[in-house]
Design a protein that fits this description.
The protein has three domains: 173 residues, Rossmann fold; 90 residues, Rossmann fold; 116 residues, no CATH class. The protein has 17 helices and 14 strands. The radius of gyration is 23 Å and the shape is globular. The chain has a six-stranded mixed β-sheet with strand order 1-2-10-7-8-9, sandwiched between helices. Strands 5-4-3-6 form a four-stranded parallel β-sheet, with helices on both faces. It has a four-stranded mixed β-sheet with strand order 12-13-11-14. β1 and β2 form a beta hairpin. It is of the alpha/beta class. It binds pyridoxal-5'-phosphate (PLP). The site of pyridoxal-5'-phosphate (PLP) has 22 residues, from α3, α7, α9 and α12.
Length: 428
């Protein structure tokens, strides 16, 4: 019984259609209805469900809250195990509801995730090296202390909560003919497959965390390793029973991507759409890019954004290629109103050697009065009190964007590591 002991595995093996509207009604006052972005990539239509913009930067708040709000009796304390994001969902929901939370994570948890869990006021216990170690410790802690245990994925309340994202896709994209989701333990897959049915779903896994592929091959959940850039999110050691049942009940197909594809897809989401997601979320775009997501109007669920990261393309080699561009003339005939933009300047990272080269290029361009673009960059640097000698500026697209947009965005490199920092508003 919830609230007094640890449930072993869910009493129910599948969700019912009523579970979805019930979950949606329960969590609606707390969660965001995330938008859908329709786009065209390589000449083909594709839509993104921007669930990485969800509260706490991940869809997990949906399932966590549905579990906490539907538990009876109301939990006096909650325990969970997580690779990071589910713990963040539970910690956030528990704080809103005034419930003390303890979150067990493997010692390998990304710092950004444990920091964000702790910031919600939860006790964070690091133990073992993989999710399965944290799960064992969390279950015995919950049993010992009589705390409510919220499973990260194999719980009908959690899966129904995650499925509310699928309900929104069905409502907002009536022409959608396939939905792709990343799979770890399969709670998201379970919920979404039922919510969008009969629309087919593609379940995407990293090569190094093949819980679902292994289970389908074996005909039952089996233990697998977790070795991928997406392991902190998709590194469950075995697929949930609910997810395997969902694969039998609904039209679910499997896709697999490797780490190189994941990172390239993630960079492309940033380069083309300014969508900053964590590796797990990029798996679905990687699968689509590699032709593993069929359909005329696919929707890719971008599941989370809890990572510290500099896009690979934004690093040294790319920054070093800027110098010839600084001297290039701006496009002619742009509207006068856009000639004196306000730059919103985001500090993202730093490559010292590149910065020195680029700063020299900027200074030279400004000294020669060669381009309005260079003058604007220098003005922006001055306005935020950053000396050109300490700054590297980014490439052509950014310059023209700065000119095109009255509130243009210019990226500046500063600092010495992958540390997304404050956004500074600057007037150019
Ligand atoms: C960002 C992100 N995407 C996808 C998943 C996979 O969810 P599930 O374990 O329900 O399959 C997770 C799980 O932690 C996650 O954090």
């Amino acid at each position: 019984m919830r609230g007094t002991q640890v449930p072993n595995y869910p009493e129910r093996t599948h969700l019912t259609p009523q579970d979805y509207p019930a979950a949606a009604g329960r969590i609606a006052p707390y969660v965001r209805r995330t938008p859908v972005l329709r786009a065209t990539v390589d000449g083909r239509p594709v839509s993104f469900k921007l669930e990485h913009l969800q509260v706490a930067g991940v869809f997990k708040i949906r399932g966590a809250l549905n579990a906490l709000l539907s538990a009876s009796p109301a939990p006096a304390g909650v325990v969970t195990a997580s690779g990071g994001n589910h713990g963040l969902g539970v910690a956030t929901g528990a704080r809103w509801l005034g419930i003390p939370a303890t979150v067990f994570v493997p010692a390998t948890v990304p710092e950004v995730k444990s920091r964000r869990i702790a910031a919600q006021g939860a006790d964070v216990v690091k133990t073992g090296s993989v999710y399965a170690d944290a799960e064992r410790a969390a279950r015995s802690f919950a049993a010992e202390h009589g705390r409510y245990y919220v499973h990260a994925y194999d719980d009908p309340a959690v899966a129904a909560g995650q499925g509310t994202a699928g309900l929104e896709i069905a409502a907002d994209l009536p022409d959608c003919d396939v939905v792709a989701v990343p799979v770890g333990g399969g709670g998201l897959l379970t919920g979404v497959a039922g919510a969008v049915a009969p629309c087919p779903v593609v379940a995407v896994e990293p090569e190094g965390c093949p819980t679902l592929h292994a289970a389908v091959a074996a005909g039952e959940p089996v233990e697998v390793g977790a070795d991928s850039v997406a392991a902190s999110a998709l590194g469950a050691s075995r697929i949930g029973n609910l997810a395997l049942a969902a694969c039998q009940a609904y039209p679910v197909s499997l896709a697999m991507v490797d780490d190189g594809q994941i990172l390239a897809a993630r960079d492309r989401l940033w380069e083309e759409f300014r969508l900053a997601v964590e590796p797990a979320a990029a798996t679905v775009f990687a699968a689509w890019l590699s032709g593993q997501v069929p359909g005329e109007n696919p929707c890719l669920l971008l599941s989370g954004a809890n990572a510290d990261w500099i896009p690979a393309l934004d690093q040294a080699s790319r920054i070093l290629s800027l110098s010839p561009v600084i001297a290039a003339p701006p496009p002619r005939g742009r509207p006068a109103a856009m000639r004196a933009p306000t730059a919103s300047t985001q500090i993202v990272g730093f490559v010292p050697a590149a910065a020195a080269v680029l700063a020299a290029a900027v200074v030279a361009a400004v000294a020669a009065g060669s381009t309005p673009c260079a003058r604007r960059m220098a003005a922006a640097f001055r306005a935020i009190h950053v000396s050109p000698a300490a700054v590297g500026c980014r490439p052509p697209s950014k310059c023209s964007k700065l000119q095109r947009s009255a509130s243009g965005s210019m990226m500046i490199a500063a600092g010495s590591a992958a540390i997304p920092a404050a956004t500074i508003a600057a007037s150019a």
